[in-house]
TrEMBL record:
Its EC number is 2.2.1.7. Residues 313-478 form the Transketolase-like pyrimidine-binding domain. The gene is dxs. One of its GO terms (molecular function) is 1-deoxy-D-xylulose-5-phosphate synthase activity. This is 1-deoxy-D-xylulose-5-phosphate synthase. Catalyzes the acyloin condensation reaction between C atoms 2 and 3 of pyruvate and glyceraldehyde 3-phosphate to yield 1-deoxy-D-xylulose-5-phosphate (DXP).
Length: 628
């Protein structure tokens, strides 16, 4: 086993080239074995095994800096940097992250998780190096999917001016999570299929590889480029921007990769190396279905079937069915995704209504303004997006949608704790950032039925910007008996008693129901309200319960700062009411990876902690009252 020789960073440099292919095979087997147990991002990692090995051989880490875009493909990098033994704890609470983390290793030059940041970050590091007259290489690895994100172009525009070495590796596997789409994807496939271009570049690569660092390399590239222009009809966009373009190169051929990266390292200025890889490489089920194996739970290696996968409907599926039903009746309803048709539940819509479906690439900011345009043009757009990725589009929501009060529906999936993706992906800020925007309405349904009725309300009865947030995973299916029709800004009173009133939001209604049962067993009188709307807050309901309850408890899966609880506190305070408000929400912090159950316990929004906190506060109020 050659992998046994890989224990410390840079051990790979001690191997002989004839060992490289076997090491790649062993790394692939290792990844398949480990991820089949823990779950994780398999297909992207299988695709970059040779590329990662070649980067570690050619560059001098950690002096040279390597930045992984999104970072979901950094597992081989983790293996090669002394973290092989941490894979059993991959993405578990307290275990190794699925993304690069500066606090996990000196070899992780920059934290990532969200897409299209690597060129900006790498350029910043390279500029800092030049300003401080230091000497090292900076390499940003970006996928063809991530290259659909706007930030990548802002960074390329900026990068054309850099004087020192800055290497951008474009890992082109023709896939985002789903098939990559759009003009950039078309441009890349045109370059890939240009055979004469490929052959010439390859020969030139062999010549360049033998030259020392410096001007000669650059001059030869320039001469080459003008020769090439006679062979092909167009220049690549990168060359036109002043970024040296090398490739395309076969990303599974170690010899070619090492040569081309060695050339890239010698160039002063920005250079883009176009590497063609196969997503899922080396594991047939993942090669056949890279989307399924992009991010996967535990699976059976022999069949590729997921293990213990529940067949109960998720909120994404409930959304999927609901929007299709509504769109059947209303031809003005259209749907947008930023490169996640499967994740957000729009795959069915895309097949049923291809003319009204838009995959805009990984471009959340654009998606929002595009939705505003669709609305201004007379359609009813629904932008289905993960909560954490919507963070990208704050100004577009405010400036392009809300000021004009355009009818845009935000279907916010993965709202709340998402689990194993960790800090970058927890959907725990959307209430805070959306609440601060005038004209925005925010809803959070308690179960599958209410998600459907909220979407119907948003599309059929409402007119203006409106967000509906719901969590990752299985939909709550109980509480069907509580089905008060959706009315703008109105909460739903589920149980009316006195003393303690729990106002629960969305995913927390389920928890609140159980908490109430336990409090009742202990003899407390507890009202339960499904808040349903975060904004506007149901002031009439608050006025009513404030007269009959000493303690008002708010429950939400969002950070406290700017959250629903704070809005209730503010209301009670502003009206000079005299109730105690206990705001149970997430701390003002980033929450690491781990199962949602563990994270709920760690952050104090699990049933046990909530019951304890409510009884402690309520009993304390009683004491105070007795003393008065
Ligand atoms: C801002 C943002 N939007 C969406 C995602 C979800 N996402 C993660 S990886 C990915 C596809 C990336 O494709 P590519 O860069 O080509 O990498 P590959 O998986 O093909 O290796 C998407 C859409 C994200 N991480 N960040
Ligand atoms: C890396 C990334 O951003 C996505 O692949 C994300 O991990 C998907 O999350 P879900 O598993 O919730 O769809
Ligand atoms: Mg890709």
């Amino acid at each position: 086993m050659i992998l046994e020789k890989i224990n410390k960073p840079n051990d790979i440099k001690k191997l002989s080239p004839i060992e490289y292919n076997q090491l790649a095979d062993e790394i692939r087997q290792f990844l398949i074995d480990k991820i089949s147990v823990t779950g994780g991002h398999l297909a992207s990692n299988l695709g970059v095994v040779e590329l990662t090995m070649a980067l570690h051989i050619v560059f001098n880490l950690p002096k040279d800096k390597l930045i992984w875009d999104v970072g979901h493909q950094s597992y081989t990098h983790k293996i090669l940097t002394g973290r092989k033994n941490q894979f059993d704890e991959l993405r578990k609470f307290g275990g190794m992250s699925g993304f690069p983390k500066r606090n996990e290793s000196d070899y992780d030059a920059f934290d990532t998780g969200h897409s299209s940041t690597s060129i900006s970050a790498g350029l910043g590091i390279a500029m800092a190096r030049d300003v401080q007259h230091e000497d090292y290489s900076v390499v940003s690895v970006i996928g063809d999917g991530a290259l659909t994100g706007g930030m990548a172009y802002e960074a390329l525009n900026n990068a054309s001016g850099i004087k020192g070495n800055f290497v951008i590796i474009l890992n082109d596997n023709t896939m985002s999570i789903s098939k990559n789409v759009g003009g950039v994807s078309n441009m890349l496939s045109e370059i890939r299929s240009s055979d004469s271009y490929y052959d010439l570049k390859e020969n030139i690569g062999n010549v360049l590889y033998k030259l020392p660092k410096g001007d000669k390399v650059v001059k030869l590239i320039q001469k080459t480029k003008s020769n090439l222009k006679q062979v092909i009809l167009h220049d690549s966009m990168f060359e036109s921007m002043g970024i040296y373009y090398l490739g395309p190169v076969d990303g599974h051929d170690m010899d070619k990769l090492i040569k081309i990266l060695t050339v890239a390292k010698r160039i002063n200025g920005p250079v883009l190396v176009h590497v063609v890889t196969q997503k899922g490489r080396g594991y047939k089920p993942a090669e056949r279905n890279p989307s399924k194996f992009h991010g996967i739970g535990p699976f059976d290696v022999a069949t590729g079937m997921e293990i213990n996968k529940s067949d109960r409907p998720t909120y994404s599926q409930v959304f999927s069915n609901s929007i299709c039903e509504i769109a059947k009746k209303d031809r003005s309803v259209c749907a947008i995704t930023a490169a996640m048709p499967d994740g957000v539940g729009l795959a069915k819509f895309s097949k049923w209504f291809p003319d009204r479906f838009f995959d805009v690439g990984i471009a959340e900011a654009h998606a929002v303004t595009f939705a505003a345009g669709l609305s201004a043009g007379g359609l009813k757009p629904v932008f289905a997006v993960y909560s954490s990725f919507l963070q990208r589009a704050y100004d577009q929501i405010l400036h392009d949608v809300c000021i004009q009060q355009l009818h845009v529906v935000f279907a916010i999936d993965r709202a709340g704790l998402v689990g194993s993706d960790g800090e970058t992906h927890q959907g725990i800020f959307d209430i805070s950032f959306l609440s601060s925007i005038p004209n925005m309405t925010i809803m959070a349904p308690k179960n599958d039925y209410e998600l459907k009725s909220s979407l119907e309300f948003a599309l059929e009865e409402f007119n203006g910007p409106i967000a509906i947030r719901y969590p990752r995973g299985e939909a709550v299916v109980r509480f069907r008996e509580f089905n008060a029709p959706v009315e703008y800004g109105k909460a739903e009173l589920m149980y009316e008693e006195s003393d303690i009133a729990i106002l629960a939001l969305g995913s927390m209604v389920d928890t609140a129901f159980n908490v109430r049962e336990r409090l009742k067993e202990q003899g407390y009188n507890v009202t339960l309200v499904n808040a349903r709307f975060v904004k506007p807050i149901d002031s009439a309901m608050l006025d009513k319960i404030s007269t009959t309850h000493k303690l008002i408890v708010t429950l939400e899966e969002n950070v406290s700062s700017g959250g629903f609880g704070r809005a209730v506190c503010q209301y009670i305070n502003d009206k000079e009411l005299h109730n105690y408000v206990l705001d149970i929400s997430l701390p003002d912090d980033y929450i690491e990876h781990g199962s949602v159950d563990i994270l709920r316990r760690e952050t104090g929004i699990d049933e046990d902690t909530i019951v304890k906190r409510i009884t402690a506060v309520y009993n304390n109020i009683g004491d105070n009252n007795n003393e008065q």
